[in-house]
């Protein structure tokens, strides 16, 4: 007589099955054999989707288990595997290219436990021009992973084989640290987002340099700070070999703006420059590599009919204010008035 599970047990078993199926269904299918690191990521994508035959097929003759059944059994207590890869090294020999892939994985068990492992995978690509059907893409050789500690990305080995460790941009990293110290509590925390940090290299000369002197080099970094309804702000750091890294302060005119009846909704009577200030935060700014200048445009309200715009040119190793326009009329029209202009010709 067949023993059927109780209703509760059957419900629990089906619930677990559906959970695994739902996870696999939500995970995008990845089968990328274009490079060795992509093959490793595809391997664990197959494992996470419980597509063990596909995972087995990423290996060449050197299989990771005695047979396919043993390979599948090795993952029976695994809910998912997260993977990070590092800088791949390669060398050619005997009609093949051999790859070494730094890898770190986090294995999450069905019981919620987590274990981190790190090491290297080997991979091989037989010269595609001399192959005959069936074609063999990049195939993995057995990897060597050992228990590791800490964050997954930090656990990735710096190198495998003879590959040099990946180079880091020391000046950029220093700029990031300085920005975090200066603005960590004032600006949005988006340092790793696309476009949050823009980097430029500037070649320049001083007026006192000889005509045949080698150009000086500077690095300019623009950091996203914050965004509002119609403006976003940026902060700039400049590195020069002689001076190191410094937060940039930009000269701006101090304005005396007069309205009829002292009401900004009234008629604009005059705009006068009564001095100069400086600011480290520019609104809606960008650096033009061709003209070596930074331009900003700050809307005072959404329609843009009131605003201020500045232009700072890099010369003699510093940014100099050369033009400033103000539209203070709040009249529904865009009609800026130039209050400073050292940029236009006579």
Structural class: alpha+beta
Number of helices: 6
Strand content: 35-45%
Percent in helix: 10-25%
Q: How many strands appear in the DSSP assignment? A: 17
SSE sequence, one letter per element: HHHHEEEEEHHEEEEEEEEEEEE
Give the C-alpha Rg. Answer: 30 Å
Average per-residue pLDDT, rounded, comes to 86
Q: Which of globular, elongated, flat, extended, rod-shaped describes the shape? A: elongated
State the end-to-end distance. 104 Å
Could you name the ranges where pLDDT drops below 50 across 5 or more consecutive residues?
1-24
Structural domain count: 2
Please summarize the sheet with the most strands.
Answer: 5 strands, antiparallel
The oligomeric state of the chains shown is single chain
